[in-house]
Amino acid sequence: MSIDDRPNNVNQTDGFTKQSKDQLAVLPDKILLQIFEALGRITKKNLCSVSRLNRRYHRLGDAVLYKTLLLETPELHLTFSESLGRRPRRASIIVEVKLAYPSAQLAQLALDTPARIHYDPSNSLSRMSNLEKLEISLPDVLLRGIGNVFNGPFDLACLKTCSLFYQTADEQYWDLRENIHVFTIPSLERLTITRAKLDERGFDFLERPSPTDLKVLHLIDCDINDDGLSDLLEFPTGLEEFVMTQAAEPEPELEESSDTFSDYISALNSQRHSIKSVTIDSASLSGRKVLRMREYQELTTLRMNWDYQLFGKTSKKPRLQSVGLPPKLEKLEFLNPIGTDEEVTDLLLSLIQNKSVVADKLKTLIIVEGEDGVSRDIVEACKEQNLELHMIAGQ
């Protein structure tokens, strides 16, 4: 075969076809992106090498390499922030960010050069127009700057999941008011707040937000006033899950929180049309009032520490009202042993025996065993009512 008779795709220099040099080039971006994502899961180093081959691969490689960021030192975050100034397009690629480093590293950065004393991670966050998930675990000296990002009307417009925790001196609670505008992000669906405090004030009249998409709210070891919480919960259009936990002996002592279980149920009233699951794990909360939750039309799961948080503790005054369980309640769980209040135990027994009237949808009862186990009367009543009883061994 003469040179002129060779196929057109043969390279006359090395004998290989142009197609064999880069067989990926014919693939559409969507398929290439899937290949690059698979390569990135195996080794990001090799993906970096591939991304240097041409502009197209560089663009697609960036979409994988910078989709999720874990920044565990302020130096790394500062370097990345400076790179966004040179390549602003990268900021729009980022979908998930986790910032996690202690105060000691931040102090070391401040001593590095005078220019870095003004280090502010909010500068890079505000550029991430497509960010969907943000996890913060940073020194509290940075909470105001990040709070300003939540306050911006066009920042984080796609954020769906957020977790906030700021490290404070002597393990104090950080002030949620500095980040309160996280509750105004319209797209936010899941929010977890750890070791924060909030007083009775909610939003000022002039800054009250528009409706939001918040579906899940977790308050972990927080010192939250029930009136302040009530104000924050006026704006979600349909909250579905609420979790609030606190240690049996909080450190430091709680200053803003109510000491009554029913106050936090009342704080949820604005969401009674939509909420499906409520967990309040705070053993120090007393039960002064019988809970009335008949208006919680969608609630199917209710968890609390003590049976008297549901029925109210025994008092000298006669009981004029019975407990009002949600009409669709399917699972009722007590996180601590029952039976510490004899009158309350009798009320629980009566509730089970009359399940068809007061809780006809109830399917599962979860109880922690006390020193004497679980009352035989309650066990027998559950069998008679076809109520599934789970007994968990106490510590």
Automatic annotation (TrEMBL):
This chain belongs to the protein called: Uncharacterized protein
Under InterPro entries, the record lists: LRR_dom_sf (IPR032675)
The record lists the lineage as: Eukaryota, Fungi, Dikarya, Ascomycota, Pezizomycotina
Gene source species: Cyphellophora attinorum
Source organism's superkingdom?
Eukaryota
